[in-house]
Structures are given as structure tokens and as C-alpha cells.
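Reviewers asked in the last cycle whether our approach scales beyond single polypeptides. To address this, we selected a multi-component target totalling 853 residues and predicted its structure end to end. The input consisted of the following lines:
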Amino acid sequence: MDKKTLTGSFANNRSLIREAVQISKNEDMKFREFQIAGRAAAVVFIDGMVDLTRLQQFLLTPCMKVQKIPENEDIAAFLSTQVLQIASLDHTKELDMLLLRICQGDAALLCEGMQGALIGEVKGYARRSVGQPVNETVVMGPHEGFCETMRDNVVLIRKMMRTPSLISEAVQIGDQVQNRITLMYLNHAVQQESVEEIKRRIAGCRVDHVLSLGMLEQLLEDNPSSLFPQCITTERPDRAVSFLTEGQVLILMENAPAVLAMPCSLLHLYHAPDDTALRWQYGTFLRLLRMAGMLIALFLPAVYVALTVFHPEGMSLSLLTSVLESQSRVPMSLFPSMLLMLLAFSLISEAGARVPGAMGSSLSIVGGIILGQAVVEADMFSPLLIVVVAISGIGIYAVPTYALTLAIRIVQLLLVAAAGIAGYPGIVAGAFLLLLSLCGLTSLNSPYLSPVSPLRPFNPDKVLRLPIWRQRLRGYLGNALHMNRTPGRMRAWDKEEK
Amino acid sequence: MNSLHQTKTSVHTEKARENQRQAAQMKGWVALSSLHLYAQLLCGLCFFLYRYVSTPSYLSLLLLLLPLTAVYYACCRISLKPLLWHSFPGKCAGIAFIFCLYADAFTALAGLSGMVQELLPDYNSLLMTIAIVLCVLPLLKRRQQNALQNLALLLCIPLFLALLFVLPGSIPQGSGGNLFPLLGQGGGRILWGSLWMCGCLSPALFPLLAHPPEKNGLLARNGCLHLIAALFFAFVTALMAAYLMPFYFLARPESPGARFMLFLDTNTSLLAWSLTVCGMMLLLLVSLCCAIEESSILLWRITKKQLHPLALLPLLSLSLMPSPIVEEVICFLFPLRALLMGVGLILLSIGGKRI
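The resulting structure, written as C-alpha cells, was:
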């Protein structure tokens, strides 16, 4: 399709733009005509998207005050250098670019005899201010979170990492309605192949419009059919900065109150934002707890079903007696009971996430008292089963990444189904296939289970959170030439350090 | 090159990084090969040696070290030459190795099937075998390359630790006297057992032959270590089997599945029982997949063709045969496998080109 261009004729440009923006239908699209030194001129903008005060004060008023435009002088150059008092000003002849900038909240200035149009950045739409992150709260550490305005998010990151090595590249995505994306990375730390690969994937996305970061994630990840997320999302600038120092690339999108980091490994998903802020002993303890919680959540319900239904010989007599006694009063067999209870738990959890705040306590009462106490008293489920489901549910909540918790919930159900069909052999087959799929997974062509398998050099901040001063490596995701974060000891003052 | 807990690295160039990645891949192969070797030795113990007496089994394994050293040395020498898999002797060697690996797969599947039947006596064995074979299918997809090596690296240490965890609980149940009286079976039986166990060694040699050592001697170092580790665990298993062997194992013939689950009778802890059952099944499953993966790689080397899923069909014949016949077939295949391996090595030494 031919690209339409703006010419020096105001009448021609006027009709072209008015037709393109459908001015007769678009109530909020404004085409304000006036004169600059006797020449016909107009400013085009969307009402509500621009800051009207700035528009009037720095664009309209100076233009209207111009008495004469010097002969033989380029009008665009004259206006931009001597008249307009706007910091960010661009000149374009492309109609598509002009329309895109207008839709982004900028104002375009047209003038008779001026080739193309001037675009001034006078954005002034309603925006949410920087607030606290909603889903990634911490005990220690900063409390700023990303908001929906990409420029603010870039600033939040730049504010924390004041170095010219921090690059932010702008790209567009969406065939019909374009959305702005910014790639941010530390130039010396990142592996250039990663940046190029992300750009290649974004350029290769054929989609009319990308609405959310989750949608973008699905378009970019290596294996979209996998249960496990292959990008990591954060709504915390401090965490985003830590990804940058690891050599990862951040992907910011307009209207997304979070950023994506790629590539990532499974271990990144299991780290909490304030692990680094805590003393290393506390951080390690919490991570081990989290790991135990994850394993309990995955395997405890399945093992309980397998042992009770298929392998009672594996249990001691006292435990077996206790299990059988609690199960004997229940009319439903254990396997469907377990599936039902896990589904009910997921239902409560999902409803809890959607319910308005004022009704949260009602939901807790329904979940805790009615489902917990009443079903036991009515002998619908055994108390031991409720205990198992509750413990595994707590284990799930210990996982800090929401996407990972969903994956764990699904795998938990699949493992319970496998255990209900074939006992321990079913669990082993399920676990084997799960591990095999994880081992074959990649994130931006980087192995998902690295640095553990396959082995990669890394700073000791993965399963265990070893001391900060031992973390001298940037890790396998970054640039090989700048893998060491420090030339020597971090605690250089401490001569006793080994 | 780099340990997991290092804080400095020598990887400062793209070339060094690439070398590190190749070394890591090789470690994955070595870990996979270790698990496979251990699983095959375990199968050898359970299918053949425990059938007669338990005591000679660990002595047989001790005697195995000598021929093993010789074979390992020969393989190191052969692998220093670029192996011409597309030459006629190379192709013949490849086919011989594929037969060996299929025998490995058959043995692992038989062991696993025996265990599953022991655990789920009411289930149809054909369905169970089909289900196990289906677990191998994801490997034949191109996207899953290196997944098994990564998995082996991930499982290697926890699996062995789990098996070691079981032992302390079992030790009070055994009797030291079990280790000695059966020596009366004679040295001939022990010697035969050790020669017979040579058939289990083919997987140990595969990384040496399919991934020749690099100039930095990486594989030579790791390869030796993985052989020693796998043999050590097999020796400990055989020793513990002799020590813990209940009298009724000698009094009446037990099924292979029961022999695999020997430790379960001696350890009453729920955690130990679960770890043993799951660990052994996982080990045999990895072994089965490893044999198929290695066959697939060899087939690619000699014909540049992918292994078709239908190639798994012969394994299903296992479920159609009665259990005693399966055992006899395996007992026949083991020495044959050792023979084929020897033939393959000789052919490779002819087919390779000295650098």
C-alpha cells in the first residue's frame, strides 16, 4: 500500500488529514485553524489527550504572535528554532507517523507553504501516579511500583540505574493499531544476540493489536504450549533493575503496569523480590521454605491418594488405621474426593482474587467454615483429606510468582489424576514427563533449568541465596566478556575474607 | 571447568563460553550414562545374579573392575580417532550398538514392568507396558533434544542420595552372616557372574564413542568418574542385597519384580519406602529412555534418519510374553549383548582413522 505524504499545500494536507481522522465522526478530534503571519495554519490534536494549557501557551500563542515569516526561509525550521517553545518537537512528512503521534497524545502543526507537519509533545492525558506494587509486596525494600504510563516506568528504572550504559530502544507492535514497546538493557552486560532475537520476534508478530503484557508474552515466548511461563513479569522497578544487572532484557509496553524480563529460568520465578534485601541466612531459609512448599504442593495430594488407594502396605499400621478410620465414614472414594476438594480450593482462591474487597471476609467465612467444617461434620470428606489439601494450598501460596502458582495448580491436579489411576507408577510417570518437558524448555533459546541443568557459571543466588559478597558473577544469561561483576573481592576492606 | 558454587569464572570470551557449554553438555551425557549404567547393573543383579544366590553378586561386581578397566582403556584409544560412522565397518558397529541398546531398553522395560505389576497386581500388563512405552514418545520429538541429558544431570545426585537415605533404615534388619556362608557356591559361579555382567557395560562407553573426548581431556576425566560412581552404587546395592536377603528368597524363586523391591521388605519407614519405589522406577524409566535416545543418535549417525515411533513396537512384545519367558530371554540377551559390544568395538577400531 502506498504511503501517503504531506505536501506544502495546506488545503491538500487539510483534506488529507480530515479524511484520515474522520473529523466529522470523531467528536474529540480537534482541527483548530488559525493564521501564522497571514498564512493558513492549523493544529490537530485529540481533546483530553493533550495538555491544553501547554498547547495554548507554548504553541498557539507564539504562532499567532508571529508578524512575518522571512522570505526564502524554511518555515518548519523557522517555527521550530524561533517560535515554538516546546522541548520535544519533530518534523514529519508521513501521514501515518503524524496520525500515530496524534493518537499518542501529541499535537500536529500545519502551515501553508510548510512541507509536512511539526509534531509537538504536549501529552496531558489522565494517568495513574506511581503507587505501591499490588502483587509483589515486600517487607524490606522500596515500595514503588510501575504504573500504566510507559514513560514513567522508564524513568523509574533510569532513576534507579543512572548510567549511560542503560539503553532504551523503542519498537512498535501491532499491524492495525500500533502499541509502543521499549526494550531496556545494560549495554555492557547484555548478550547482544538476546536483544536481536527479541527484536526479530517482535518484528515477526503479525497481530492487529496487542492489548496487554500477557498477550505480548504469549507472542514472544519460545514454547507457548508449555504450562510454565518462560518470561518473568515484575511490577517492581528494583527487581527490574536486578534483571538488568543479570544481563536480561526488559520489555516495557504502554498501558502495562509491569515489565517483562527475558530470558529467564525457572529459578528466577521462585525468587521473591526482597530475598536480596534480607541477610543471606534469612534469604536462604525462606527460599528453602518456598522450595519445600512447592514440592509439598505438587506431590502431597498425589502421594496421599496413591498410598491410600493403591499402596497401603507402604504405611505403618498406626498411620494406615488412622487413614482408614477417617475415610470409612465418607461415602465417596478418596480419588474423586481429592479432585473435588482441590477444585473447590482453586475455586475459592479464584473467587477471592475477583471478589470486591468488602466481600472478602464473607468469602473467607464460606470457604473456611462451610467448606472446611461443614463437609467434615456431614461426613462428605475425611478430615485428613482436608488437612492434606490445606497444607498443599499453603504450599502453593508460598510460590512468589502468580503464573507459576497456576502452573503448579494444574500439574498438581494432573499428578493427582495420575496417582488415582495408577498409584506410584502414575506419579513417577507424571513427574518424569513433567521434568522432561521442563528440561527441554528454553527461554529465548536459553535452557529453562539452567544454571543447574545444564550447568552454567552463575552467581550463587539461585536455589540458595549465598552472601552478597560471594556473588561476583553476572551469570550465564549475560555477556561473556563482562561476566564478572567485580574485579576482586567485594568486601575489599576485609582482609580476613577468604 | 566451573563448579556450581564458584564465584569467579574464566569464561571471558565467546569461545570460552562455547567451550563451557560443550563441557556442560558432555557432563549431561556422562550423568545420563551413569544412571543408565547403574540401572543396567541393577537389572543384571536382579534378573540374573539374585536368581541364584545373592552373595556372589557383589564379588562378581568386584571382579568386573578388571575387564572394565581394559574395555574403558580400549574405548578411550578408539575414541581418539575420528570415527567414520558412514564407512561400512562403522555402520556395522553402529548396528551392533543399536542392538545392544535395544537389549538395554528391553531389560529396563522388563524391570519396570515387573515392578509395576508387583505394585498394581490387578492391572492389565499390556496396558501398563504400553503406558510405559508412551512415556518415551516425547523424546522422539526434535524439540526435546538434550532434555534427557539435562534431566539426568538434575536427577543424578538426588536419586543416589535417596537410595543412600534408605540404607541406614535397612541395616538393622540384615545379618552379617548372610555375606559369607554362600561363598560355598564356588569361585566358578562368581567368575561367571562377573563375565556375564560385562553385558551391562555398553551404556557406559557410549559417551566415549558417540562424543569423542576433546583436547582438554574433559571426557576422559569425567568418564572415569562416572564409571566408578555407578559401579560403587551397584556394588553397595549388591552388598546390601546379600546382607538383607531374607531367607525365603533362597527358599523359593521370586519374581523379578519382587527382587527389584527387595529393600521394601526391610524398611518400614513411609518416606524410605516411597523414595525407594519412586527412585527405582524413575531410574529404570531414565534407563529405558536413554537406550532409545542413544539408539536414535546412532541411527542418525549411520543413516541420517530419525528414529520412527514405530521402532518402539518391538518393545511391546514384552507384554505379550509370559514372565518366566521374558526372564529367560533377558538371560540369553545379556551375554549376547556383551558379544555384540565387543564386535562393535573391533569394527570401530578398523573403521576409525588415526589422527
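The mean pLDDT of chain A is 89. We regard this as preliminary and will revisit it once experimental data from Aim 1 are available.
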